Amino acid sequence: MNTQRAIISGVITWILGVLVYSAPYFLPFIENSEQYVNVVFPLGIIPAVTLGAYFYYRTQGSTGYKTNGFRLGVVMIMVAIVLDALITVPLFIIPEGGNHFAFFTDLSFWLIAAEFVIVTSIYWRWIVVPNRTKSQPA
Predict the structure, then answer these.
(1) How far apart are CA 77 and CA 117, in angstroms?
(2) pLDDT bucket at 87, cuts 50 / 70 / 90
(3) pTM beyond 0.70, yes or no
(4) Which of 38, 44, 72, 103 is the most buried if burial means most Cβ atoms within 10 Å?
């Protein structure tokens, strides 16, 4: 596994996730932003994680397929957890009366974490592995 590239993939995914999460709060035509985020964020994180996985696997050459999508997903969510602990919670959650414990024990947080791992695993299995076998000589 290319750890540096996996960490960068995690940062890219986290940034896209923050954008997906915060966008409804800046759109004046959305009346109930919190409810909208609860519906849209789990769906919007799928393309964000897919782009992070794409970034990791796109230049890994003939050995990139060996990095299992599960492992990549775990690294990406670990990066997101660190960034959430250092940036998201202090800047956005604590001013609203929340804390680290409430943020990280919320069931929806862990469902999103599982989504990270599942999406990267599916990407690896359906996109990376078949493309690797197609490019191998018979």
Answers:
(1) 8
(2) very high
(3) yes
(4) 72
What the block records as the tokens of 48 is 């964000």
Tell me how crowded residue 79 is: count the other CB atoms within 10 A of its CB.
21
What would the pLDDT profile of 69-83 be if each residue is shown by its tens digit?
Answer: 999 999 999 999 999
The torsion defined by the Cα of 117, 122, 127 and 132, in degrees rounded to 10, comes to 80
Single-letter residue type at 77: I
- Three-class secondary structure assignment of the chain: CCHHHHHHHHHHHHHHHHHHHHHHHHCCCCCCHHHHHHHHHHHHHHHHHHHHHHHHHCCCHHHHHHCCHHHHHHHHHHHHHHHHHHHHHHHHHHHHCCCHHHHHCCHHHHHHHHHHHHHHHHHHHHHHHHHHHHHCCC
